[in-house]
Amino acid sequence: MREKRSFIEAMLKQDRPFRELCREWGISEKTGYKWRKRFYEEGYAGLAEESRAPQEHPNAIDGDTAAEMIRLRLAHPTWGGKKLLVVYQRLHPGMPLPSLSSVNRIIEKAGLLKKKRVHTAAITSECPRLNQAMEAHEPNDVWCIDFKGWWRSSGEICEPFTVRDKYSRKVLCVRLMTSKSSEAVRVVMTELFRKYGLPRAIHSDNGTPFAATNGILGLTNLSAWWITLGILPERSLPGCPGQNGSLERMHADIAREIEDKVPGGIAANQAALDAWVEEYNSVRPNEAIGMRTPDEIYRPSKRKYTGDIDILEYPAGYLPRKVFKTGEIVLYGIRVTIGFALRGMYVGLREQKQQEMYDVFLGEFLLGTLDMTSCCFTPLTEVKSD
CA 86 to CA 68: how far, in whole Å? Predict the structure, then answer.
């Protein structure tokens, strides 16, 4: 801009030929005449660089259409451009339909487009295996979770979902639930992750929604989600509730002190449980930790929860594959079943020395082996040593 201004100032002096002036400034006569014309019409403001984009675009969205798209997106914040276009067409039959790229651009400019979170799995030579037992040497090494048996109060069913830190014995959650689905538990777990950070492992029994008897390695959509966050799912052996003994003893305390003793349904019982948890963590001495309280020992995890991972990336040399809704992946044009619980997630395939054999990872965790000679995936617990 400074060069243009100095050119105009020199031109106004009219002390040399225009052609010589353009040559001195290193521009063509055509450019010089263009600058002079803009200056005469608009002053120095006319010298600003103009956009080279076309003034009109055949796929541009007018203001009313853009506002309608933003309104629809606000009403359905998880819907993409394709769904919004279908709804727009239903609401405005016969109106010109904008392009998908234009809709996505409007959504993005409005700040309503969620960017996908990408995480690269840190796979080492000694990668952890699923369901291996982990000792608790400090807070957040292992969280223990379960559903305690239910009871009735004023005609309502009270069924607590409990989460406890194994090392410090701190009760992180006692929540009366109206559903035992993966989705309902995931909402509560997300709250806990935001508040306390991420544990290294979560110990559960083999019940719903923590485990599936017919799934790969017993994984459910809930426990597979934990894996994408770098959390190791581990479970008690079937018929061995004693392996989660400290949580069972806490359940016995709830049964003795709260269950069937508080009228008023879910709301009253939840209030009583909240007060009980506060006393348990900060007042009640615990013999298992030297008669200290859990709050004296527990510290939030250094592994912070920053949101769910949309795409898992893998190190160079791995073959990333998305698991379809059917639980299958495609490798070299061949569909192979991996596991329904992993649908929508990305697995990484690492080729073994043996030809057409692959190790299959979900994040940093080894799931099993894929044999392309038989198009068969074998979960790790079924892999036999030589």
Answer: 13
Report DSSP letters for 192-233, one per residue. HHHHH---SEEEE-S-TTT--TTSGGG--HHHHHHHHTT-EE
Residue pair 333/96 in contact by the 8 Å Cβ criterion: no
- In the prediction, which pLDDT does 328 show? 93
**For the chain, how big is the Rg over CA atoms in Å?**
32
Tokens 């348990």 found at: 280
Cα atoms found within 13 Å of the Cα of residue 34, Cβ hemisphere only: 10
Q: What is the pLDDT of residues 37-73, one digit of tens each?
A: 887 777 777 777 655 545 445 556 777 888 888 888 8
Measured from the Cβ of residue 200, the count of other Cβ atoms closer than 10 Å reads 17
Q: Which amino acid is at 42?
A: E
> Do residues 331 and 319 lie in contact, with contact meaning Cβ atoms separated by under 8 Å?
yes
Q: CA–CA separation, 134 vs 136, rounded Å?
A: 6
Contact present, 113 and 107 (Cβ < 8 Å): yes
176 forms beta bridges with: 160
Burial (0-12, 13-18, 19+ Cβ within 10 Å), 385: exposed
Residue written as tokens 């395939």? Answer: 349
pTM above 0.90, yes or no: no
**Residues making up the chain, counted from first to last:** 386
Q: Is the peptide bond before 209 cis (omega within 30 degrees of 0)?
A: yes
Contact of 371 with 378, CB cutoff 8 Å? yes
Residue 328 one-letter amino acid: E
Residue 312, strand partner residues: 119
Give CA–CA dist 323/312, Å, rounded. Answer: 12
- Which helix (H) or strand (E) segment holds residue 377: the answer is strand 376-379
State both tokens at 170.
């701190």
Structure tokens at 239: 């018929």
Sign of the torsion angle spanned by Cα atoms 379, 225, 164, 297: positive
What confidence tens digit (pLDDT) does each residue in 221-255 have? 999 999 999 899 988 876 666 667 788 889 999 99
